[in-house]
Amino acid sequence: MEQSAGPTNRERAERGQTSTLWGIGANVALVLGKGTAGVLGHSYALIADAIESATDIISSGIVWLGLRTAAREPDENHPYGHGKAEPLAALLVAGALMAAAGFIAYESILRIQTPHQLPARFTLGVLAVVIVIKEFLYRRVLRVGKEVDSAAVKADAWHHRADAITSCTAFVGISIALLGGPGYESADDWAALVACCFIVYNAYHIFRPAFGEIMDEAPEGTWTEDIRALAEGVPGVVATEKCFVRKMGLEFFADLHVIVDGSISVREGHAIAHAVKAAIMQAKPAVYNVLVHIEPAS
């Protein structure tokens, strides 16, 4: 069960912030490119795609701020730290996605009912480039999100994937409109409407784990089993009883009941509790604190 020490929580937060800033820079360029191409090329699907990228910039800013806040040390008013800021940022990202989907759906329905020009052919080339860039950003940011175990960074990654999906649907819609010719102009707008469904799905995909974290839901994986095994490997520990683990941002907190020989002194029991805490925190650097309760063996 011995594990090598990994990056500190501060280092993980900094990695997440760096990844987020790269995404913001890319999205600024994409918003300008897609928005301009959409207006000049008479494609609302591309304009909708630019709107979605604009919400990416806002949501990435929220993620960056959430990570920055979560990395702050505990203070008098926040003795458990500021970790909740990280899943809160993810919830705000999910809300931004939902708002973007609603706006795009409304505008798409209006345009479906209003005659307009066919989109220009060059918009397909723009979308092809966008899809490649966004899929690359999704994979890169998601990898960082998994490495630092951050709901907010993973949410930022899924926002990139949502943008890639809207670009794919826009590509299909514009292709149908161009192949069909006059009378098929609204295919572009239907594509934007379909993209909204994918955006809503991604919003839920972001919302669910972040909400679970806010509600102190048990984390995924083998955290409880691993912590029990580490504690039971400490000399003087007879067994473990209750073990609760919760995640707060980039950090984990554990409450553990340890059973020891009932005939030992309070001082000896206290020393065992400290040894258990040290063993767990050394093996699992993401664990910020362990509250150990000593129980006498019957």
Automatic annotation (TrEMBL):
Residues 24-215 form the Cation efflux protein transmembrane domain. Its main location: membrane. It is found in: Membrane. Residues 224-296 form the Cation efflux protein cytoplasmic domain. Pfam families: Cation_efflux, ZT_dimer. One of its GO terms (molecular function) is monoatomic cation transmembrane transporter activity. The chain crosses the membrane at residues 21-40, 46-67, 88-106, 118-137, 164-184, 190-207. It is a multi-pass membrane protein. InterPro entries: Cation_efflux, Cation_efflux_CTD, Cation_efflux_CTD_sf, Cation_efflux_TM, Cation_efflux_TMD_sf, CDF_Transporter. Keywords: Membrane, Transmembrane, Transmembrane helix, Transport. Belongs to the cation diffusion facilitator (CDF) transporter (TC 2.A.4) family. This is Cation diffusion facilitator family transporter.
